[in-house]
């Protein structure tokens, strides 16, 4: 058992015990409130560049299994837990969380006051932090000075998006899935509905996408600030109105930017699997899985052809949009339900339905 510290740019220091990799790591420190779902969280590429604090106090108790990964290579910078379970118990368990973190070279810290840390993030907003190398003494003043001067990379989408296109064949509707750092759950939901999916890199042009003759375009989730991928905004501007579109999370934010709206950074974001979202058209509330630090500014939508369809019940922020003239809709949360709940899984059926309609709203052949 080796010591490890988490040092924040605010000067706060949390001393705990290292698990996983022995290396040091820097990142934006955020928190997530999911009581379960740590495997999906650690492998969600939207966390690229971030150190994730789990507010639920016992993490790792059902281990890691081969099925629940949201990506092949986890992109998180580290994990912070109150208590790490080292003797997991579950029929699907293939490894412990610690074993996975060693294998994937990800540092973790356990045994710190995660409630205190979460309060700091809630009060000050997401902060920069460093997980020290295991067993190493650190000079806090030096680390704080360095963190204050650090600007994190802005190429996270480029780090996690596929480098070349690939198919995931089916016999149904042809969907081009733009990979901004896709959670595998999105692909799974499309495959489940027999879609013929072609996954393409984030910097594919509209012309290249049209040359695949898609019935629909799915915009994935992804890390970082949506304004850091201007090429995707241009691509979307050339696609909206031509092909039905469904966007999730980063895809939703990019859709808003491409339509003339604006996005801003939330103070501490929405991360967890228990976020209530209201559908303003039906009045129905879904409990949703979320992981985002940015949000669409509702004021910026005045004068655009977008309508707010969903709002977060916790803070009233925009959670869903639809285009008033053409078949395109997006959500800020995760209907692929990884980790659950599955309340909003029906949105994938709505997308399939939309693909049976042409852009003028007429029914298409099956
Ligand atoms: N899960 C996502 O796609 C997140 C979108 C974006 N990176 C944000 O933090 O808001």
TrEMBL record:
InterPro entries: Anth_synth/Amidotransfase, CarbamoylP_synth_ssu, CarbamoylP_synth_ssu_N, CarbP_synth_ssu_N_sf, Class_I_gatase-like, CPSase_GATase1, GATASE. The keyword Ligase applies. Residues 2-132 form the Carbamoyl-phosphate synthase small subunit N-terminal domain. Residues 1-173 are annotated as: CPSase. CDD domains: GATase1_CPSase. Keywords: Amino-acid biosynthesis, Arginine biosynthesis, ATP-binding, Glutamine amidotransferase, Ligase, Nucleotide-binding, Pyrimidine biosynthesis. GO terms for biological process: 'de novo' pyrimidine nucleobase biosynthetic process; 'de novo' UMP biosynthetic process; glutamine metabolic process; L-arginine biosynthetic process. It catalyses: L-glutamine + H2O = L-glutamate + NH4(+); hydrogencarbonate + L-glutamine + 2 ATP + H2O = carbamoyl phosphate + L-glutamate + 2 ADP + phosphate + 2 H(+). Composed of two chains; the small (or glutamine) chain promotes the hydrolysis of glutamine to ammonia, which is used by the large (or ammonia) chain to synthesize carbamoyl phosphate. Tetramer of heterodimers (alpha,beta)4. NCBIfam families: CPSaseIIsmall, PRK12838.1. This is Carbamoyl phosphate synthase small chain. It comes from Paenisporosarcina antarctica.
């Amino acid at each position: 058992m080796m010591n490890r510290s988490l040092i924040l740019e605010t000067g706060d220091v949390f001393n705990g015990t290292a698990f996983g990799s022995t290396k040091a790591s820097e990142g934006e420190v955020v928190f997530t409130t999911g009581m379960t779902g740590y495997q999906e969280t650690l492998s969600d590429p939207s966390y690229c560049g971030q150190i994730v604090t789990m507010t639920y106090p016992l993490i790792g108790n059902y281990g890691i299994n081969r099925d629940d990964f949201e990506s092949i290579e986890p992109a998180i910078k580290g994990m912070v837990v109150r208590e790490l379970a080292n003797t997991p118990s579950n029929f699907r368990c293939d490894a412990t969380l610690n074993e996975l973190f060693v294998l994937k070279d990800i540092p973790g810290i356990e045994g710190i006051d995660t409630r205190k840390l979460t309060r700091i993030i809630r009060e000050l907003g997401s902060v920069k932090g460093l997980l020290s190398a295991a067993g190493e003494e650190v000079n806090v003043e030096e680390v704080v000075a360095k963190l204050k001067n650090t600007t994190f990379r802005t190429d996270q989408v480029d780090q996690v998006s596929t480098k070349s296109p690939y198919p995931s064949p089916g016999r149904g509707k042809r969907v081009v899935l733009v990979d901004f750092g896709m959670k595998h759950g999105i692909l799974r939901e499309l495959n489940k509905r027999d879609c013929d999916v072609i996954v393409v890199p984030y910097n594919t042009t509209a012309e290249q996408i049209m040359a695949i003759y898609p019935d629909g375009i799915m915009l994935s989730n992804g890390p970082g600030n949506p304004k850091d991928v201007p090429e995707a905004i241009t691509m979307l501007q050339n696609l909206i109105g031509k092909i039905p579109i469904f966007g999730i999370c980063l895809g939703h934010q990019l859709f808003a930017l491409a339509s003339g709206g604006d996005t801003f950074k939330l103070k501490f974001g929405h991360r967890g699997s228990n976020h209530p979202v209201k559908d303003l058209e039906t009045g129905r509330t879904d409990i949703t899985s979320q992981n985002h630090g940015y949000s669409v500014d509702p004021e910026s939508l005045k004068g655009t052809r977008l309508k707010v369809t969903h709002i977060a019940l916790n803070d009233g922020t925009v959670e869903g949009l639809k285009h008033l003239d053409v078949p395109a809709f997006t959500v800020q949360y995760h209907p692929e339900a990884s980790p659950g709940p599955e309340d909003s899984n029906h949105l994938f059926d709505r997308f399939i339905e939309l693909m049976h309609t042409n852009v003028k709203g007429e029914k298409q052949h099956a």
